[in-house]
Amino acid sequence: MSFFRIIMPNYNNGEWLDKSIGSVLGQTFQDYHFIFVDDCSTDDSLTKAQKMMLQNSDIYTSWTETFDKRWNGGSRNVGLRYNHPLDGSKYTLFLDSDDWFIDSSVLQKLHDFIEDEEFPDCVRLPYIADFGNGKTISMSLDDNTVERLTNSDIVACWTKCVKSELVQPFPENTLMEDIVQHIAQCDVIKRVEAFTSPVVVYNRMNVNSISENGSKNKKWQSSMYRFVADLADLELKTDICKQNRDKRLENAIKTLKNS
Question: Which long-range contacts (CB under 8 A, 24 or more apart) does 48-57 make?
Fold first, then answer.
């Protein structure tokens, strides 16, 4: 069993893979496995990813696969379902293919932190947003309780390192899958610790990313309807998460009515 599982979904981010994949393969801590899932890219992404991984065969293992109609689920879910030869992992990290780890010591520091904190269910991961031309913003995420984490506006799955046995799947066919998964994820977490330094560089220079296009995406309205349905269907156990779901559902319905 490896300590970390790193899942990277990709669609047409070939120009950023040298940085993103390179930041994974260049880690000094190598007790991990890396799952790269390509969502039918039309650029050179998959070829570039395979070449980079083959050049780093000393890493425990690396895996790439195209995501197409054979798979029942989104790219992150494909990565979660992959039956790895190392028979699992202790913790799961997500990293988008246009973002990257801030330096080569991140996994080692995170591993040591997790051991020192006696293996929490979730570790909150600070990050740096990079807008280019030297403009950056450091986000110090200090959520150290489930309630604070649940109610946070920063829900991206790559801001959390979670015990692999607790990682929840993502809803399909929506641009807001991180929000739904965030609530479901918090519902099964009992202990959260906040990491002390930035882990990921969040790339705000990629003008083609979904997060940059937001409501301009032509699928926005249909995705919002799906988002409302996903929230309404979300079965939860804790009152904290139920209240958060209801609040987000109310806001989503208002947004749809005003669109």
Answer: 48/14, 48/17, 48/18, 49/10, 49/17, 49/21, 52/17, 52/18, 52/21, 52/22, 52/25, 53/21, 53/25, 56/25
